[in-house]
Structures are given as C-alpha cells and as structure tokens.
Amino acid sequence: MGKTYIVVAEVRGGSLRQVSLEALQAVSAAKQEGDDVASVLIGSQITTLASELANYVEGHVFSVDHPDLEIYNPESYLDVMKTVFERAKPDAVVLGHTALGRDLAPAIAAHLGAGQISDVTAIEKNGDDVLFTRPIYAGKAFEQRQFTGGPQVVTIRPNNFSPAAPASSPAEIVELDYAPSGSLRSIVKDIVRKTSGKVDLTEAKIVVSGGRGVKSAEGFKPLEELAEVLHGAVGASRAACDAGYCDYSMQIGQTGKVVTPEIYIACGISGAIQHLAGMSQSRIIIAINKDPEAPIFKIADYGIVGDLFEVVPLLTQEFRKVLV
Amino acid sequence: MNIFVLLKQTFDTEERIVIQNGEISDDGVKYVINPYDEYAVEEALLQRDQHGGTVTVVGVGPERTAEALRTALAMGADEAVLIGNDGLESDEYTVSRLLAAYLEKQSVDLILGGNFSVDSGGGQVAVRLAELLGLPHTSSVTKLAIDGQKAAVERDAEGDTETLEVALPAVFTAQQGLNDPRYPSLPGIMKAKKKPFHHIAPAELGITDEAAAKTKRVSLSLPPQRQAGRILQGDYAQQAAELVNLLRTEAKLI
Predict the structure, then answer these.
(1) Dist CA B127 CA B113 (whole Å)
(2) Which family is annotated (chain B) (predicted)?
C-alpha cells in the first residue's frame, strides 16, 4: 500500500497561494510510485478556488467551506484537519512555511505524534530514503534531515520549489462539513491588513531593503517607490527596525525573516553577519552604500558607492524607462 | 499567576558557523538566550510585576544551558528548571514531550516562549507543547494584556496585525516588538545565585527512549561563498543606467 500525502493549501487575499502549488511540487519530489496525494482547502466561499486547486492534484481535494473559516484560527483549523484525517489517514502532511503553516504544522505534528521538518528548501531521494534540506542559523549553514519513523509533517519555504504542473485529470472535490464547536478558547476579533495590495516579503521576487543609512521612517519613501516600480517588497535591517524607522515585520536577518529573491537591493545597509544570514541566498545582490569599506560589498554582485538618497531615485527612473 | 517561560540557549547571532568533523564547531562561541526567548522572559517579568505571581524559566538541553537560565534569573525570574537531555536523541518532538511531562504536573496560568529559535529555527516546540497540554496558543505575539482569565493579544501574521481574545491558561510565543528586554543588573546577578535552580532528568519525568527523536540529521554543509562583484564607476546617473543594463544583459533578470 502506498503512502497518503496531504497538502494543506492556503487562500490569501482571495487567491490560492503560490506556495501551495510549490508544496504540491515538493510532494512530487518526495513521493514514490503508488503513493496518494490529496489536498485540503479551508476557507469561506472557496468553490472556485477548490476547482482551481483540483487542476493540480491527482487524488482528492477536500474542500471545507464555512463562513467561520474565513480567518485562520488555530483551534478551528486543527479541528478541520482532524476531520480530514478521519477520511484520509495521512502518512505525511505538507504545508507552506507561511504564517499559517508555521502555526498549524506543529499542532498537527503534536496531534499525530509525528516528527516535523520545517522550512524545507530542497528534497532529494536516495533509494528509499527521502532527504530534506533546510537552512539552520537562518542560512549560515544547511542540514539534510530525514524521518526515522512515524507520520511526517513538512513545511516548505516559499520560492524554492517550482509550482506544480497541472495534473493529467483534475482531482475529485470532496466537500466536508464543518460544525463550529462554539467553545473556541481563542477568537480573532480584528485584522488590520497592513500588507493588502503589497507583495509579501518572503515571496517577493525583488526586495529593496533599507538600513541605518535610511536615517528615518520618511527615508524609506524612495525605497518604496523603487519597490513599487519593480513589483517588489520593502525590507529592512535590524538597525533600521531598532531605530524605529520601520515595523519589525519588515526585518530581514537571523532575527526576522529570511528572504531569497531574484534581486536584493541593499540600501544603506552595512552588512552585519546577522543580516547577511537572512539575505545572502538571494540570486543577485546589489549594494548601495556611502562607505566603500562596508562588508555588504564583499558579497554584492554589483555595488554603487554613494548616497542612497541620490542613487535610489535615479535607479527608479532608469527601471521605469525599461519596464513601462 | 504561575508563569512559565520556555528558554533555549543559542549561538550569538553575530557568530559565524564553522563545520568541523561533520559537526558545527562551538569552539570559542558566545552563547546567549535565544533572542526571541529573551522577549518572552521580559514579558513574563512585566506580567508578574503587574499581576503578581512567579516566573519559572524552563530549559531543555545540555549543562551549559544553565548559564542562559541564570541570566534569566538575573533579569528577574524567580526559579529555573533545567531538563537535561544527554543521551536522549532529541528533536522538537522530544523536547516538547519533555516540557509537557514537566508542565502537566505544574499549576500553569501562562506559558511564554520565543517565536522560533535562531539556530535550528523549526518554530515547533511551543505550539506542540500547547497541543500536548490541551491549551490554546497564539504565536508571534506583539502585544499581550491580561485581564483576569482572559488575554487580549496582538499577533503579527506576515505583516498583518490580528487582534485576538484568548482564554487562560494559554501558550504565547513572542515576536520582535513585544517589548524591550532588560539587561541583568549587578544586584540581579548577585540575587540570581540564591534563587531555586532545579535539575531534572528525563527519567524523573517518566520520559524514556520512546520519546526519542522522529527526525535525524544526515548531513551538514555551508552555503557557497559569495564573491565580491563589481563596483560600478561614473557619476550616479551613469551607474544607475549601467546597473539596469547589467541586470538585463548579464543577469537577465529584468
């Protein structure tokens, strides 16, 4: 008998998240001939998204559609997963390493008594063994891990697997009922969407990041303009966050977020080790800094020694010429 | 209020990683309290000072972990517990089992931990523990206000801020911005030496090899070294134009 993989797909801003398709691709890399793959979609008014998801899944799509599930709640989502597990007993559960995945995966792992390998960036098969590569120390080193037994839970880092190709035939959609338990101990009262309409930092293809050299909250304006032209996201160093120029949710580094965009543009960032850990796996690194001795230049593909407040607007102008 | 803080000792974030004989070398490495756990310790102290009670810091790890626990005592925590795991193959599954075995025997109102550890970075233990203890949890918390048996919480979810109401006892993990951790004071350091410090072995908690790790490391590597690239020349306008051109022709990314 083959194994059963269950991929927890995710809705954000009314769309299916790219990382969910990447998680499906990751499962293709891990599974053996004869294994089953199912996916779960949880949310409110998700009929269309469930059909969209079904195009990428071989087995079943479990759709759990209820107004109370519009917003992620650890208890209600775990309850839903328990219902799914009654229908399809999982050997492995795979999620994106997102706000939702990071929160739900360990709860699922504890419920199943499973091991979990988090934040996986690559999967390799070695005979019957499946090896999972993941960063440690925020990417200062990498380890390969494997499961030693029991059910498995895996979270996949966004932007590291190509999205799954459409399946040969769409999966059958199975709608599961959800009965609100009425005894939830945690209730989401409100969400302030600071990021609506913006590109998510960890999924962005281009990141424009500011450091101490940005000097003020106001100083981030030119960076935001550049990011907008490039359809990228704005990040920051710890120094900029600690100085109060920007929100901690923008922090990139060993404390903060790890990003791996195609292009990373570091503006006024000197390049402390703890920051480099969070961005040195970017494909192309561009550094703009007044100080020619700044360590960031040692790892940058292209460097501009100069005042970011003069250089960044010129860059925005040049990109606009090319991209518009 | 009985407050427990989950605490891990990690390398300082300014440390470089060196691999020696297939292991990460800790030669000359400076150890600290995991930065996210430091926010948890600070929050525990603030909550205790406001609502009364005791703060117990709990760590799982080798003997050197005691140093991080003593730092937390010097910050103001009341008691420390070190659960040794020498000889027990450990991963997040194991550590959460050890913590659950200890905490289920305690009277708990509030458990605080870090959002993740800056070394292994799995972000699993606190959430696993909540599930094992049957407690609600909220991760990545940036604000915590306790009123009787309820907590009003703000949480960072990929840049969005969620406001929640959570019934206590509960588990919360600290995100940056929650507070500004204090430094241990000199009198604090002196007092810490006299505070209760308990060592517990897994066997005392009834934990045996059946709680051994469910995952194992098979290899370790360093990322490829990046080389310094090219410093552009000319006036700023020329450099900007050249950069865009290089991204198109050389890197083929635009």
Answers:
(1) 9
(2) Belongs to the ETF beta-subunit/FixA family.
